[in-house]
Design goal:
The structure is a homodimer of 625-residue chains. By secondary structure, the first copy, chain A, is of the alpha+beta class. Chain A has 5 domains: 11-28 and 172-314, 3-Layer(aba) Sandwich (Molybdenum Cofactor Biosythetic Enzyme, Chain A), CATH 3.40.980.10; 31-54 and 136-169, Molybdopterin biosynthesis moea protein, domain 2 (Alpha-Beta Complex); 59-131, Molybdopterin biosynthesis moea protein, domain 3 (Molybdopterin biosynthesis moeA protein, domain 3), CATH 2.170.190; 324-402, MoeA, C-terminal, domain IV (Beta-clip, Beta Barrel); 434-624, D-Maltodextrin-Binding Protein, domain 2, CATH 3.40.190.290. Helix content of chain A is 26%, strand content 27%. The first copy, chain A, is built from 16 helices and 37 strands. In chain A, the strands form 12 sheets. Chain A has a 6-stranded mixed beta sheet, sandwiched between helices. The longest helix of chain A has 20 residues, at 295-314.
Chain lengths: 625, 625
C-alpha cells in the first residue's frame, strides 16, 4: 500500500519558504479604479492627497447674519449696536460668506427690531462662526497613506477633498476545488459513505473576512487527471488556488504530485496539529495550497497561512491577531512533535478570564463553532497545567466574551433550550455550556471556573441526590444548589426492543455504551452494576465512553451498541425504546457569589417560567421540581 | 427670522422614548429562507437543530485496514499477529466501516508481508481510529440558538448536520435622503457655495457594518413638499428612513415638521455634542430619523441610535461596544449642557495607552478618519485633566492600535510622507502624527505621551536651534535630538506678490495669518516682530491661528489673509509666491528609551534613505542635514 511520509516543518519555516518563493516570482495584487462612493472597505494602492480644500470656500458655520466683524466691536449690554439692512446679509449654515463680510452672528444672538434691523449686545471677532477655507482638509494634505483600508469616514474625507475615483486593490479571486470520491453537495439525506461537502462554505466565509472573493469549482473525484485539469482551470481564472482534501500522502492523495507537475511544491507537511498534511506550492506565479480534508485541520491552515497569502496580495503586513491572557481551566497534554492549536471557550468570572479547552479532534467542526479563541501550545511544550496563565488568540471581540454565563457540568438538552429562550428575549449576554459531567460541575464551581452547572449525583448510601457531594467537595456553604427538574433515567434500546431488555441486569449480555467518568449517569451505572452484582469487566463496552445523552442515543440508533443509560428526552428524539429505571433530581449548583448575578437570575427566571415548562413537556421525561 | 428652539433630552431618555414607541407599533424584522452555503454573516431566526448526525455513519478516521478489534488483541512485538486477506478490508479516511469491523489499523502500523497479508505488533481496541456516528454532531442537538450571527464554522456545522436551507433575518433596507439647496453630488470641481454630498457614503459604510443595506435617494432641495414626497417614497420602499440635514430648527429645516405630518416626532434635540439637532420619529410603523447635516454630528447619531435601531430590527441586544482604559494626554473642558463625544487617537507608549484628543468641530470629518476611539464626557462633568485615566470606546481593534509610533509635534508634510513610505514597505506598525507645534513635542516627549516629535525651536539669544530648549525642559539627557532636515521658512503671499512684500517688516500693513502658540513658526514670528520693532497689536490677524503650514497657505490662496509664515513646500503646493526669510533646523526629539525601538529606527531609516531624499527634493525647500 503506497504511503509517502510527510515532512514536519515548523510553521514559521514553512511560511517563510512559501513567502520567499512568492516574492521571488513576483506575486502581487492587481488594481482597479472605483468610485469613492463605492469604495468603503477597499484597500487603496497609493497615498491619497486632497485635490481641494474642505470647505473650499468660507462658509457660514451657523444660521444667522454675516457682517464685517469691526462693525460689532462696540457692542455690549450697555451699548447695543444696531445693524441696519445695509450692514448684514442673512445666511444659513453652509452658505458662502458674502463679499465684504468676515464673521457671522448666530440667529439666537439677534434682537429683531421689527423694521429689518437687528440689535446686538456682544461683538464678534473676525472669522467667528465661519468655517474658513481648509478648516477640515487642506488641498495637498495626505488623507490616507498607501495600503489604507477605507473606513466610512475616510470615504467621506476623500469626497470632501474632491476625490471622486480611486485606485484600489482588486479583491483577489480564490478558486476552491473540493475533491474526493465520497464527497457530495449539501443534502439532508446523505447515503452511507457520503461525506457532505461543507469545507468550501467554511472557506468562503473565512476568505470573505480576509478580503477575498471565492469561486467554488464542482466537486472533483479522486482522479489525478481530473484534479490536475481543475487546478489548471483555476490557475487561469483565479489569483490563488486551494485544493480541498487529498493533501496527505495516501494512495488517493494527489495534490502534491499535481502541484509538482504544474509548478513547485515548497512544503509538504507542517509541524502543526491539526493541519499537518498541508501542501504549500506555486504554479504560474500563483500560490496553490493543498488543504487537509478534515475541516478543523483546514481551518488552522486557512487561518495561519491563507490569511497571510491574501495579506501579501494586498501588500499589507500580516493580519492583526488579538490575544488575551486567560487562566486555563483544564490540564492540556501535547506532543513535542508539533505545535498544537487547542480551541477554547472563554468567559469572565470573578475578574478572571477562564479558558476551557474544547474537543481536540480534527473532524470536530463544532469545536470551532463554540471556540472563542485558540491556545497555541508550542512544539517544545509537553503540556500546560490547569490554573496556569495562557495566551489566547481571540476569534471574537473581547466584550462579546465578557458577557458570558458559564454553565459547566452535566449534560441536559434543557440548558441549550434555556439559552435559546434567553436569546429570543434579547438578553445582553450569552450562555456558554460545557458538558463535563456532574463531578465536573462540582470542580468547576469549586475552582471558580463556572458560574453554575447541572448536577445529578446519587448518594448510593442515602439514596439522596447532590447534597452530600456538595457538602464533601465544597464545604462551608460556598456553593448552593437550586431546584432544576426531575427527569427519568432509563435504558435506551433499539426501537421495538428486539433483544427484549427488561431491567438493568440484562446489559450483561449486550454491547453497552457508557458515559464518561464523573458523569452523574456513569455514577448511576456503577451503582446499578453493584446492586445487580455485576463488575465493569463483565460489561462489553463499559469503556466505550460518550459525553452526552444524545451521543449515547445516536450510537444505539446506529447499531454501534445495544443499550446505554440516558434520559427519556434523548431516547424520544431518536425514536428509541426506553426502559425507565429511576427518577432523578437534576439541580443547578451555583457559586454563592453569583446567586444574585443578573445572568444567573435571568437563567433561572426562564427555567421556572410557565412558557419553559411547556417546552419541557414537549421534550418529554421531565417533571418540574 | 424663524427659529424654534430644540429640546435637550439626555441621550438615554431619547433612546428609551424612541425604542418604547417602536416596540408599541410592532417594529420588527422580516425573514427569508436562504441556502446555508450563502448564509455566512446572516442572523438566524430560530434555533437550529441538527437533522442528522455527523458523521452519519461509522467512518474510518485513517488510511489503513478495517478489522474486528478482537482479532488483534494478542498482537505484541514478541507475538506479531498476521492478518490474512480474509481478516481485513483496505479503507481510506472517510470510508464507511465495513460490516463486521469495529476498528481501523493505520497504514503506518502495517508490516506488508508481500503476499497480501500484513503483520501487526500492537492491538487496536474496539472503535479505535473510527469516527463513530455522531462524533461531531448528534441529530437533535442545538447547533445555534435563535438570533445567532452565522460564522463560517457555524455554516459548516449546519451543513454537516444536514441543514441545507435556513430562515434568516432579511437585511433591513435603509433609505437615505440627502437634502439641501447647496448640496451637490461628489465632484472635484465644486462651485463656491456648493457642498459636496459625502454624508450618504459615510452612512452607507456604517450601515453595512450594522448589517443593513442602503438605498440612497437623489439629493432633494430644501422644499418641504419635495422632501415630504421623498420621505413617503422611502417609507414605501424601506424599513428605516434617514433624512440627512434639515434636522435643526432654522428657516430651511423641515424634517421635524414632515415627520410630524406623516407620523410621530418623539424627540427633537438631544443633549449630546456633536449631534444635538437630531429628530427621532416614526411613520407607517417605521423609524424615521432626522440626522444633522454636519458629518461628525450625524456620525454620532448613527453610532449611538441608528445602530441600535438596526439591532432592534434583528431582535438582538445592543451592539457590543469595546472600551479600554487610557491616559488622557491633554486637558479637556466640556459643558454641563450636554455629554460630549471627543474623538481621540490612541497609542501605547511605555506600557500606557495614551489618548490624544482630536479636533472637536462638528464639521471636521478628518477627526473621525484619525479617530481610534471616542471619549464620552458625561453631561455632569465640566472637564477632565491631562493624565487622568479615562474610558475610551474603541473604533478599531486594540492590537492595531498597540503597534503605533506616536509622533507628536511640529507639523511638516514630510512626516506623512515617511508614514507612507513605511506603509508601502508593509511595516507592521502605523504612524500616528499630531500637529501640536514644537513646544507640544517637548511636552509630549517629556510626559511620555509620544515616542518622538518634530521640533524647530529658535533660541533667539544664541541663534541656535532646539538644543537650549531641550536642555531647559527635559534636563538630564532623558531625550535626544536626531537630525532631520534643513528647510526654508519664509512669507507666503498671493501669486505674483500683488502687494509687493519684500521683507517680514511689511506684514505690518497686511492681513496676517498666524500659527498657534507653541509652534516653532510662531516663535519665529515673535522673534521677527521683535527684531523689526513691531508688537503683536500692530499685526492685523496676529490672533488668527492655524495649526499647519498648509492651512496657512490655504487661507492666503483663498484671500482670507495676505501673508503668513511657512515652509517653502506648502507655498509651492498652493502656487503661492514665497519670500525666503531663514533656513531652519528641523530635528526629531526622541525619548532616549525609544531610540532603539524598531518603529523609531524604521522611521529614521526611511527618513535618511536615498529614495526619500528624492521625494523631499520633489516637495521642495528641504536640504538634508
Amino acid at each position: 500500500m503506497k504511503y509517502n511520509y510527510l515532512n514536519n516543518l515548523p510553521l514559521d519555516e514553512a511560511k517563510q519558504k512559501l513567502f520567499d518563493h512568492l516574492t521571488s516570482v513576483g506575486f502581487a495584487g492587481r488594481t482597479e479604479t472605483v468610485a469613492v462612493t463605492d469604495a468603503c472597505g477597499r484597500v487603496i494602492k497609493n497615498a491619497a492627497y486632497a485635490h481641494i480644500c474642505s470647505p473650499h470656500y468660507n462658509a457660514s458655520a451657523m444660521d444667522g447674519v454675516a457682517v464685517k466683524a469691526e462693525k460689532t466691536f462696540a457692542a455690549s449690554e450697555r451699548t447695543p449696536v444696531t445693524l441696519t439692512e445695509a450692514d448684514y446679509v442673512t445666511v444659513d449654515t453652509g452658505d458662502p460668506l458674502p463679499d465684504g463680510c468676515d464673521a457671522v452672528i448666530m440667529v439666537e444672538d439677534l434682537i429683531d427690531s421689527g423694521d429689518g434691523s437687528y440689535q446686538i449686545i456682544s461683538s464678534v471677532y473676525p472669522w467667528q462662526n465661519v468655517r474658513q477655507v481648509g478648516e477640515d482638509i487642506c488641498m495637498g494634505d495626505m488623507i490616507a497613506p498607501s495600503g489604507t483600508t477605507l473606513t466610512p469616514a475616510l470615504c467621506g474625507a476623500l469626497l470632501a477633498g474632491g476625490i471622486t475615483e480611486i485606485e484600489v486593490m482588486k479583491r483577489p479571486l480564490v478558486g476552491v476545488i473540493p475533491t474526493g470520491d465520497e464527497i457530495v453537495p449539501p443534502t439532508s439525506d446523505p447515503q452511507k459513505g457520503d461525506i457532505i461537502e461543507f469545507n468550501s462554505t467554511v472557506f468562503k466565509g473565512m476568505l470573505d473576512s480576509f478580503g477575498a472573493s471565492v469561486k467554488v469549482y464542482p466537486i472533483t473525484p479522486d482522479k489525478k487527471e481530473l484534479i490536475s485539469a481543475a487546478v489548471e482551470t483555476a490557475l487561469n481564472e483565479c489569483d490563488v488556488v486551494l485544493v480541498s482534501a487529498g493533501s496527505s500522502a495516501g494512495r488517493d492523495d494527489y495534490t502534491s504530485e499535481i502541484i509538482a507537475a504544474l509548478g513547485t511544491v515548497l512544503v509538504h507537511g507542517i509541524a502543526v496539529k491539526p493541519g499537518k498534511p498541508a501542501v504549500l506550492g506555486e504554479a504560474c506565479g500563483k500560490p496553490v495550497i493543498g488543504l487537509p480534508g478534515y475541516p478543523v485541520s483546514a481551518i488552522v491552515i486557512m487561518d495561519e497561512i491563507v490569511s497571510e497569502v491574501i495579506a501579501r496580495y494586498y501588500g499589507k503586513p500580516n493580519p492583526t491577531r488579538t490575544t488575551v491572557k486567560a487562566t486555563l481551566a483544564k490540564r492540556i497534554v501535547s506532543s513535542l512533535k508539533y505545535s498544537e492549536y487547542v480551541r477554547v471557550s472563554l468567559g469572565r468570572i470573578g475578574g478572571k478570564l477562564i479558558a476551557s479547552p474544547l474537543p481536540r479532534g480534527a473532524g470536530v467542526i463544532t469545536s470551532f463553532t463554540k471556540a472563542d479563541g485558540v491556545l497555541i501550545v508550542p512544539q517544545n511544550c509537553e503540556g500546560i497545567e490547569a490554573g496556569e496563565e495562557v495566551e489566547i488568540r481571540l476569534y471574537k471581540p473581547l466584550n462579546e466574551i465578557e458577557n458570558t454565563l458559564i454553565v459547566t457540568g452535566s449534560h441536559d438538552p434543557l440548558i441549550d433550550e434555556v439559552a435559546n429562550f434567553l436569546a429570543e428575549q434579547g438578553a445582553p449576554f450569552r450562555v456558554c455550556s460545557t458538558h463535563v459531567g456532574s463531578m465536573g460541575a462540582i470542580y468547576a464551581v469549586r475552582d471558580g471556573h463556572a458560574h453554575m452547572g447541572g448536577i445529578h449525583l446519587l448518594d448510593t448510601e442515602t439514596g439522596e441526590y447532590n447534597k452530600s457531594y456538595v457538602e464533601k467537595y465544597i464545604p462551608g456553604g460556598k456553593a448552593v444548589t437550586v431546584k432544576g427538574v426531575k427527569r427519568v433515567q432509563g435504558l435506551m434500546v433499539a426501537p421495538g426492543n428486539p433483544l427484549g431488555v427488561k431491567a438493568f441486569k440484562d446489559v450483561r449480555n449486550l454491547r453497552y455504551v457508557n458515559r464518561q467518568r464523573g458523569a452523574g449517569t456513569r455514577i448511576l451505572c456503577d451503582y446499578l452494576l453493584e446492586q445487580n452484582g455485576l463488575s465493569p469487566e463483565q460489561i462489553n463496552g463499559y469503556r466505550n465512553e460518550e459525553f452526552t445523552h444524545t451521543a449515547v442515543a445516536a450510537l444505539i440508533a446506529a447499531g454501534n451498541a445495544d443499550a446505554g443509560l440516558g434520559i427519556y428526552s434523548a431516547a424520544k428524539m431518536y425514536g428509541l425504546d426506553f426502559i425507565p429505571i429511576c427518577d432523578e433530581t437534576y439541580e443547578f449548583l451555583i457559586d454563592g457569589k453569583y446567586l444574585d448575578d443578573p445572568m444567573v437570575q435571568a437563567f433561572l427566571d426562564v427555567l421556572y417560567s410557565a412558557e419553559f415548562q411547556k417546552r419541557l413537556a414537549e421534550m418529554g421525561g421531565y417533571e418540574v421540581c
